[in-house]
Each structure stands twice: as structure tokens, then as C-alpha cells.
Fold each of these.
Amino acid sequence: MLSAKSLFQEILDNDESFALFCSIAASGESQGGWENARIAALVPESQRALTPKITRHGADEDKHGRIFNALLKKRGLQPVPVPADTDYTMLLERNGIGLAHRRLERDEPLTVQDIVTYLAHSRVTEQRASEQMDLLRKHFADHPDLGRAVRMISDDEDSHLAYCHEELLRFAYAGHGRAIQRTLRECALAEIRVYRDVSLAVMAHMGRILNWSRPRAATLAAGIHAVYAYERLAGWRRMVSLRTPDRRNALGGPATQEPEAA
């Protein structure tokens, strides 16, 4: 029976597919770490109180990248090149979502609107990350090799999402509500397209590695397209709502340390 658990177990059991999975994940997390570090360095004077939280966000992303690389090392594997069509972070940037790298590379303070854009982009992408890690946590929280890493990353992603809700609500109360909703909608609609395309690309690469049959590959592709159809119709709305999170000041402290042996 084809299920999320059996699919990931198959990827996990093969060294080549596991190396690709971890390399894609580590690359995305490392890019997120760099972006947050640059944003923290360029926060406008009026929003300096956000700097420690943005710094913590970036530190968490860097930590996640190290965890995925440690999982490879534990298996005696090396990172592999990330195919361009699976690079979720860069594909989002090419679609005009978030703050462009060329903007972050300049030593020029960001504007308040830039910070709103960053938070809206993060609110959408952290929703996806939180859901994906929740799925892995559901099936692999007790796995002897992955369990501790999965639990830690999942908890971090939930904290990142709570932080985005809390800070966006603060900006909304300060008069940025319309801009926030407009940006959230644009980000969400672009993200679901990119997520569909990246998912199809990842499954295509995994299928070649694992020698999936054409019917199986077609079934997985159809499932990805069905998820996109739902998200395009109504599912994107979960990414644009704002609520007071149960976790308050979720990024108010130092980053937790990754497991020594992952």
C-alpha cells in the first residue's frame, strides 16, 4: 500500500535517495540561515527589537542544515549536488517571493515594508515546514536514527510559525494590515505552485534512483497535482490567516543545540 510512511521509508532505506533527500533539506535550511542572518544585520533602526529573534531564526535554520549533514555522515555518506529543479528557496526567489538575495547582499538598511515582506514570506513557508515536519514526526518520532532530529526540527518549525503569527499581528495592529494580507496572499499562491513543481521534481529524481514503475510514478504525480488543485481552490487560505499563537515569544531565547550524534 502506498502511503507517506512507506514512501519515506523507501527513500530512507536507499543510500542514494537518502543522500539526495538530506542534501536538498540541508541546502534549503542553510540558505534560510544565510537569509535570516543578512536580514538581522539590516533591520531598520525602528525595528531593532526584532534583531535577536531574526538572529535566532537564522541560527535554527543553520542548525537544521548541520543536522541533515550529520545524518549523512552517520550513514557514511557525503552531500550530493542539489538539482536546480528541487531548490525550493531559490525557486521562490525567482518567482518574486520574499526578499531578493541581491537586496540582502547590499549593506543598506531594510525598510519596515521589507520586514513585513520577510515576515509574510516566512509565515507561508514556515506553515509548509511545520506541516512537513509534523508528518515526519508522526511516523518517525521513535526512529532510532532519525527520531531525535525529527522531534527537534519539528519543534523549532512550530516556534518559527508562532513567531511569524505574533510579529505579523503586531504589525497589523500598527496599521500594516492591508499590506500584510496582500503580501500573504501573493506569497501563498506562489508558494503552492513552487511546492507542486519541486515535489514533482523530487519524486522524478527519487523515481529514477529507486526504479519506480511508470504506473507508480504516475500515481505519485497525480497525488501531487491533486494536492495542488485543493490548495489552489481553498487550501492556500490556511497560510494567510493570523491568530495569537499558544507559544508566546517563541524565539525570545537562545537556539537549542543539535543532537551530538544526530
Amino acid sequence: MRMRPTLSWTPAADLPPGTTDVAPVADVLSAGGVLVVSGAGLSTESGIPDYRSEGGSLRRHTPMTYQDFTGSAQARRRYWARSHLGWRTFARARPNAGHRAVAAFGRHGLLAGTITQNVDGLHRAAGSDGVVELHGGLDRVVCLSCGAVRPRRELATRLEEANPLFEPVAAGINPDGDADLTDEQVGGFRVVPCTLCGGILKPDVVFFGEAVPPGRVERCRELVREAASLLVLGSSLTVMSGLRLVRQAAEAGKPVLIVNRDPTRGDQYAVTRVELPLGAALTAVAARLGLPADGDDGPRA
């Protein structure tokens, strides 16, 4: 499953308007077996911007592609300078009410699983177990030569030591952890190699134009097959890797519900589309189900 660099699409004009009633979502969750598929919109309330909303980063920023990263040392220097700065924001981000509600649904046995398109690790931080990170995680770094995977915090320390005077002010931070810097600000930023083999280091995330690992793809498809329904949270479904899961569920006759403030590329497959901010919507759903969503409802089984 290759991530296509689709940056825009035209919403269907003949679909009925979305609702603000969360009752259908609560009803589906109460039946159990729900597979959650989350996107960038779930993390905006944690201070991480999304791509495609009115203030989304794609209006000013084109994400790094795999081809550019692997084919150009200058592109890698630009990426790592910007990502090194952006990582500080990601490292400080904390789960919001939406992440905590999803974790609560899981603790109470309502979910068949959670798949996220996000690379911020906030589902795990909120206490969700067994999350499939479809596009990887920014908190890990992989060597393209030897395959070694190391914690991002180790690389952050090495980059700080190699660039002690690097303290630019970014114009903005993007959902992929890439900060907006000028070429002048990137300047002579020094990139460090793999400590084991001297190879090129890359964040353990799937760039645009890069294939999602086949084993991860099959795991996601398996989760869709096992689920009773699919709940999309905060994803525009513009990227094909997420839209395919929605199509698979719909073709199998499984109900698809979408909670997102804006229209999505998968709206035609949804039986319910709730147009509300994610934190408020999921907190309301948790309340209807009688579930505390603050992470303080006792130890996990």
C-alpha cells in the first residue's frame, strides 16, 4: 500500500449534511467490535495541526516525499533541521479528551482495535493498547542501511550536540513534525549518521510516495475483517491508505461512521457523519455510555 501524495480532492455535492447528534456513535460503540481509524484531526486539540482544514498546514507546506529524502543530501539536511525543531513540540504534546475517550472505549471492551494515521504517539500515551500506527511513529528512527531502530530522543541529543548554536524560530509546525524554516535558517545544520554502520537515518514514518510495510497493511485489513463496524475519527481520508480501509468495511457491509469537522473523501461510504470537534464529540459519547474518559477509571484488566 503506497501513500499517494494526494493533497486535495473535491467533496461530493449530493451528500446530505452531517449531524451533530452523537447518539448513533454511542449506539454502535455499545454493541462492541468497533474498529477506530484516527487521523490528524484527533490531535489538533493537543496542539498538533492537521493537514487539510481551513488552517491546515498544506496551505503553506508540502510534506517531504520519500524520493526527495533518499535522493538528496540537501533535502535530508533541510528535513532534519526542520524536524529537529518540530520534535520539541511533538515531545511536549499530551493526549487530549479525544485520545482519552478512545482509550476508555478500549479499556471497557468496546473496540476491535485502533488504527491511527497519526505519527505523534498520543494514542499510546493516553493508554490505548495494541494501536497499529499505519504511518509509523516520530518517536523512533530507522537506519536505511542496517535497519536498526533507535529512540528519537537519542537522535535529538546527538543533533543538539552537533548543532549547539541551532536555535531558529519556526513560522509553524506541521502534522509530520516538520517545522517551517527558511533555507537561510537551515544554513549549515549538521546531520548525523547511524552509530552502528554510518548509514542514513530516517524517522520511522511513512513519507508521501513510500509504501506502508506489507505486514502492517495486512494487519489493518485483518482488523477490518474482524470488526463489526468502523469509526473514523478526525481523518479527511484523502490518503489512499486510510480510504482503502473504509472501502473494505463498506464493501463487506459493515457500518462506517465518521466524526470529523469537515467533509471527508469517504463520506459516501458512511451511514452517519458527525460534524463536531473531536474532543467534545467523544467526551459526549463516553458520557452517554457512562464511561469516565479521563483515564482515572481504575486499572486495566
Amino acid sequence: MNLARLDLNLVVALRALLEERNVTRAGQRVGLSQPAMSAALARLRRHFDDDLLARVGGHYELTALGQVLLDRTATAYDLLERLFASQADFDPAKEVREFRLVASDYAVAVFGTELARVVHEEAPGIRLRFSHTPAGVVDDTATLLSAADGLLMPHGVISDFPATDLYDDRWVFLVAHDHPGVDDRLTRDDLARLPWVTYQRTYDAPAVRQLGMLGVEPRAEVSVDSFQLLPLLVAGTRRIALIQARLARLLAPLAAVRVVEPPYEAVPLREAMWWHPVHTHDAAHIWLRETAARIGGRLADAAGV
């Protein structure tokens, strides 16, 4: 494929056509007349050797290839938009911009709140938008990163993308404050016999793999996709939950739970901000990464976990 021979304006037209499934509405969306949009559709059909939009009764539906291109075009559009929004200089005190960060509720609570406070003080025109990490982050990391400014995630889940280390954390267990069967420490037998509240997604993958290597199979009684719900689902029950120490310190006072150490040397947790290489030399993104690293350094220098 010779990109030099392609008209990148067709990406804009293609996205509008696939999402609107109507030539007139697609033209209105991107500021083209109906004849101009019809001409763009004809060029796209010749390029892909496919109708893309097929008339069914009184409306259009996407062909099989059109359906495939729907998500790919949105991703390509977002990536091009971010590419051409890159800047040589960036003044955080004057710029108006939104950064989108993909993160678990753990990362937002422990790190994102401090990032938002610093941005509020130093860059009043900057907006932050936190999006929950999708379940398929491992399967299509490149697509996710191409549509975001950063992904907050520990090492050990993804690789092969640039990252800035932020801070270290460790895994601990939560039990009810008045748990009848647990004193100051858990045993490996406790891990096998007690019911668990587990986190559904992949961020704790290294910790879960470690349990498997130790021969422990958690007996999940409740499963949720929010770390911050774990204390509420442990309180007043015989359940236990694996959670990050920094988050446990924030949440334990809000529920009738207490923190106990694991009965093994738990795998360490190092949180990082990952990004797509297209952002590496963008001045705005460099500022974001440097600010994130500075905040991570403050967390690392704070009271130990």
C-alpha cells in the first residue's frame, strides 16, 4: 500500500459514511455536499472493491467488510487526529486541552486524584478524562493506546510499549474487622477454605498467577470489576479479598475491615503509565508524562506501603 497516493480526507468521509449509513447525513456531518460525498463513496468502493454500504429496502446496511472497517476507521481517525494535534511547544498555564487516561478505579483513587489536583493548580485549561480499562486490553493494546493519551497499569500485564514508572505498591488481604476465623495473619489453609471476593479483570494477573503457582485456587463467592467495592463486600462476612496496600489504606477506615499480610512473599506491584509511540515526542504529552512521574515520585517518597 502506497500511502503517498491516498487521500487522507477519505478517512474522514469513510468514518462518517460507516457511522451514519446515509450519504446525505454523512455529508452534512463533515461539511460536504451530497454529490461530493457520493463521489467520495464511489472512490472508497473502488479502493476496497466492495460496496461498503448496501441498500436493503429503504435504507443502507454495512457489508461484511464495512462492518470490519467501522471500528478500524474510528481508531485510525483518532490516531490521525492526535498525530496532527502534536505540538512543538506546550505551556500548561495557557493551553486548553483534554487528556484521556485509561485506568482502573484503583489507579484513579491512588494516583489519578493527585494528578487531578496538580493539574487543577498548574494547568487550569487542561481537562482530564478517566476511562475504565476494557476487559480486552491485553488482546488489542495498540488500538486502545492509539485512542488515548495513556494507560495506567502495573508491569506484568502488557509489554512492548513505552512506559513511565510511577510508584510501587504491594498486595495485602482484607478481612472483616470481627472475622471469627482470622487473627493477625492468614494461613495458606485459610486462603483455600475461606470464600473470596475477587476482581474480575486482568490488572492483578501476576498476583493471581502467583496464587496458582502456590497451589491456591481462590473460592470466589463474589466477583466485581471494581477494586473499591472489595471492602464493602468483605465487611460483615467471612470473605477475604486481595487488594493493593495503598488502596486498602485509603478505604479500610470507610468499612469494618482490617488489613492482614499474605502468608507468602507476594509479587511486587509497580504502577506505570503506558503510551503509544506516536505521542513520544509531542510536547504536550511530554509535559503529561513528566507531571505523572513527578507525582509518582511524591507517592514513592511518602509513607511506605
Amino acid sequence: MITAIKGTRVRRAAAVVFTTGAVLATGALGTAPAQALTKPTIAAKGGFVMNNGTGTSLYTKAADTRRSTGSTTKIMTAKVVLSQPNLNLDAKVTIQKAYSDYIVANTASSARLIVGDKVTVRQLLYGLMLPSGCDAAYALADKFGSGSTRAARVKSFIGKMNKQAKDLGLTNTKFDSFDGIGNGSNYSTPRDLTKITRSALKSANFRAIVKTKKYTAKTITKTGSTRTMAPWTNTNGLLSSYSGSIGVKTGSGPEAKYCLVFAATRNGKTVVGTVLASTSISARESDAKKLMNYGFAK
């Protein structure tokens, strides 16, 4: 009798242990990812990540603090061009000496466009977004702005950039340049730049351009012959170093420091985000990777 009671107690104890263990195991599996998901520390002074599909915020760090944006400004330059009515991407633009002089005067990043060459709008967009050509940006602003003088057309184009920002409801963004070489009041925030990019990514042409690692343009020279340009390489190292990366744009400058607007898709989920004022090229890429990993895990 005593033996039977002892046996029952053992069996009951084992059952309790087993049940408790099962609950603990289930609980651990259910909650561990959330507990393990620590908000990343980044070198950049500002950062923001959102779910591209839902617009849900996934990470913020000084996300609404206005900062210089460097060449990430060119995302809006491309967006304005691609939103023009009846856009002909094969329309040709003749490269002017003013574009070349501008590059020299500002020691600016260049697509190495050659004065007198005829370059298509499509090629200019690649020259804008891959090597971050300020000459390509100038050419596009001159082409798609309105006015009887180059200065008027550039001013008109920048006006279009600001109108698009306003249409998106952005209150912390202002452009005073077509390429990020501002005149003291060219600024945005991690949240605003991410929203601009989310909107730009709706364009298939934009998506195709920003995910391209290398592009070779064939332009038409003054004499009508074909010139094969040296290949343009995308300045965004994430395209080669982060699985699922689909763009978007680097930026840098004395005031802007090191900036990166990034996007990636994994398992049907796309995250898009921005880091501003990071400390180096490698740091901004490391920041972006941390934030994308965090965004995908949420």
C-alpha cells in the first residue's frame, strides 16, 4: 500500500514537472525573440526605419531633428524628374560647359559628363544616383525646370522639389539645391527622408536605378559618333554586402558628415530607413545593417 502511494506521488510529481516544463518551453519560444531584441546603438546622430508596406515606424533616434543631407538630396531630384507628366526617358540633353564648371568650382562628385555630348534622361538618372554626379543633377534641373534662363530653370526645379516635400506633408524638409550642395538651408530629417524614399520607391524606374551596381552609358558626341563612357559604380556598398538590399543613396559633406538612405527586402517584407551624420563610410553602412536587421526582426 505504501509502495503504491509512493508510486502515485512520483507519477504525479513527474506529471507536474512535465506540464510545467511544457509551459515554460512554450513561453520561452513565444517571448524570447521580443526579449532578445535590443534596440541597436548607432554611430549616426540621427536614424529612422519604417516598414515600407505599412508605414509603421520601427526605430527612431533624433528622427525629427533637421540636419544637412548631402547627396541624399538627389533622391528628391530623381523623384521630381520621374514624376514629370509625359516623361520621355530617351529624350536627349546636351551637356553644357556650365555643368562642368560647377563640378570644378565645388569640387563636387561627378559622372564625368563631357561637354557637347548628348545624354538621355535615363542615363542622367543613372549618373545622378550611382556615382552621385552633381553634373547630372545640374543637367536634369536645367532640363526640367521652367524659365528663359538657366538660373530661372534651376530655381523652378528646386521649387518642384519643395512642392513634392510639401505634398508629402513634410514639415522638416527644405531644399535650396538640386544636389545637396546647399546654400545654408538645405535640410531634412531621418523620418522625412525615409518618407520621400518610400514614395520614390513606388516608381519602377527609380527602383531599377537605385539597385543597379554598375552602369555603362553610351552617349552621342558632337560629331554624331557613339562614346562609351567609363562605367558608373554605385556608391552604395550595401548592394554588395547586405542580402536583400535594393538601394538607395549615399551622401556626405563637411556639415552632413556621412549619410545613407537604405532599403532591403527579405521574405516579402521591405524596410526602408535613413541614417544622418554618421562618422565614416564604414560606420554608416554598419549603422544601416544594424537598423535593417532590427527592422526585419520586429
